[in-house]
Amino acid sequence: MTSAPVTAPLLPLSAPVLLVLLVSLAVALVAGFLMHRSDYCLTGMVRDLFLFRRAGLLPVLLLQIGATMLLLELARLGGLWSGAAFITVKPLLLTSLVGGALFGFGSVLCGSCVVGCLYKMATGSLLNLVAFLAMVAGATLYAEIAPWWEGFTAGWPHLPYKTLPELLHRPVASLVWPLMVLLTLALWRYGRQHGFHRRCAARGFIQPWRTALAWAGLTLLLCLLVGMPMGITSSYVKLGLSVEQLLLPEHVAALDYGQRLRLEYVPPLLNPQNLRLEGRLGPGWDAVALLQAPLVLGIVLGSAFSAWRLGEWRLVWRVPAWQYVLVLAGGLLTGLAARLAPGCNVHYLLGDLPILGLNALLFALGLLPGAAAGALVLRQLLTHFAAGDRGNP
Amino acid sequence: MEIREFDICGQVCPSALLTALREVNRHRQALREGRLMLVLYLDAREATHTIPEAVGNMGYAVSVEPCPRGYCLRIGRG
What we know:
Chain A has 393 residues and is mainly alpha-helical. Chain A is 65% helix and 3% strand.
């Protein structure tokens, strides 16, 4: 029998809190390391389909989604996981579609997504540090416009269902297994025609398909030990509002978006007291910070370690000025979109889509035309500006 | 033989591949006749796969080797 939840502050660190912290950090360290070794760019996987009209690494992304789906289903059948939607999964909202489209557009302009900029900036890329800061600014900007956006979208169609099985009133297995069979056949066919192995001269290169499978395993670990898959952009808002608080403390204190209760999180392990942690997007060390800050930090450190081990860490800042402008604009849009959605590609594609989350499906639907539009604009910009770039003797 | 160098280190993705394709198309005559070699310095690890694949499919020879700036790609006559 479980006892009634006990709401408690995070500090001092208790056993369940420490476990969540360490597991999240360890998972992110490995993820960051792998992302750097494989140059595992989630933005590029979607963008290249439209920019170069080739599948590129998109099949690898599908492999990761399929593998995660399989592992979670096996965990459910084995009784390790209840199969219930994660607490971060929301009922169907059309904002996911709009947010997905803007996210696709912005991230293609930016050259990276909310995790891509982390592993790239960790190798010394100033451009990607700018991208990260722009995304934080974009996510924080949403805190200012949230009342307007929520009012504007209040009348939009919505449904109380969180996942496709819920919507269709079907058992999870009746949808997941046929989908996995179809995906396996499609990937098998692709593998036979093109192969998943990439010839790459980069030092210490890890095949992207290995990273995809490893990341699926990491997602399972997070779901079992922490209770939810990876998600990081809430911490971007929290970081932005924490900085804003230093400058405008009264304004931040009055922001409803930051003060509202977002999460009531009960750590799943080592928690006999049924400790419950609250999370808000405003400044403060709470459940949102506990769940996401170690992921951000871990990805950065894991990637930096990989680059340092390979001798590839170097500060690179001399790039054409227009690219800073481009990345700034793209990053702002990406950060803003991640809150409009609300959620990013990592949260939706790698975490919610494997459990057939409805918002994840909408986000993916929006992401494709957004990325296509972004690729169109990026091609024009790169062609237009590149002629005046340095590099020619 | 003329050598044209391009430093694409740190630039927004996928500048490396787009630059390579643009320059190969711009100088295809000189490249095919062996009068020109393109040398690209880059730090995008993914590009050490995509450029040799794309440019190699166009019939050019591509070599990749590590260098202090990251990687050095040489594109010449196939």
